[in-house]
Write a structure and sequence with these properties.
Blueprint lengths: L7 E4 L7 E2 L3 E2 L5 E6 L6 E3 L12 E3 L8 E4 L5 H5 L7 H10 L7 E6 L3 E4 L8 E2 L3 E5 L8 H8 L12
Antiparallel strand pairs: 1-4, 1-6, 2-3, 4-5, 7-8, 7-11, 8-9, 9-10
């Protein structure tokens, strides 16, 4: 199996707009895998009826972004703890587990690297192995063209001077 419980996935672009049985139309919305079965379509996704989906219908969403709210994945395995172990985050990960570990606590991501996360108010500038976390909530983003913004605001001649503050 390609995915594990807690992974954030979406349907592949090839599936977008197609129907999966009478109840589900494929889209590109991000969803969490909440159950894995022994059937040939093993994955059940949060927020959908009991339909099950296959590896080739799903793709992993780039895992973490600054601003995400995460918590320790209660299904994390020893392999998850040791993946990328020597990526420079082993001591900080152990410190996190010793002083901050709580399955119910949520943390805000303030930094992301290939192997680790930095969490707000946790071990100043610590790099913690990202494989032990799962995304709980993601800040919603909206993409709009200048024309769409002008229409929404009822103005014309909008000029973007700064993309971000």
């Amino acid at each position: 199996m390609k995915f594990k419980i807690g992974d954030i996935v979406r349907f592949t672009k090839e599936m977008d707009g197609k129907l999966h049985g009478p109840e589900v139309k494929f889209d590109t919305k991000e969803r969490k895998i909440v159950e894995i079965s022994d059937f040939c379509d093993p994955y059940r996704l949060e927020g959908l009826p009991s339909n099950l989906f296959r590896d080739e219908e799903l793709e992993l969403v780039p895992c973490f972004k600054v601003g995400d709210i995460v918590k320790v994945n209660k299904n994390a395995t020893i392999e998850d703890f040791t993946k990328n172990w020597w990526g420079g985050c082993q001591i900080d990960t152990l410190e996190f587990l010793k002083f901050y570990f709580n399955l119910d606590k949520e943390y805000e991501v303030v930094g992301v690297s290939d192997t680790s996360l930095r969490l707000k108010d946790v071990l100043d500038e610590a790099d913690i192995n990202k494989n032990i976390f799962e995304v709980v909530r993601r800040k919603e983003t909206h993409e709009m063209t200048v024309k769409e913004i002008e229409e929404k605001l009822g103005i014309t001649g909008l000029k973007i001077v700064k993309e971000y503050e």
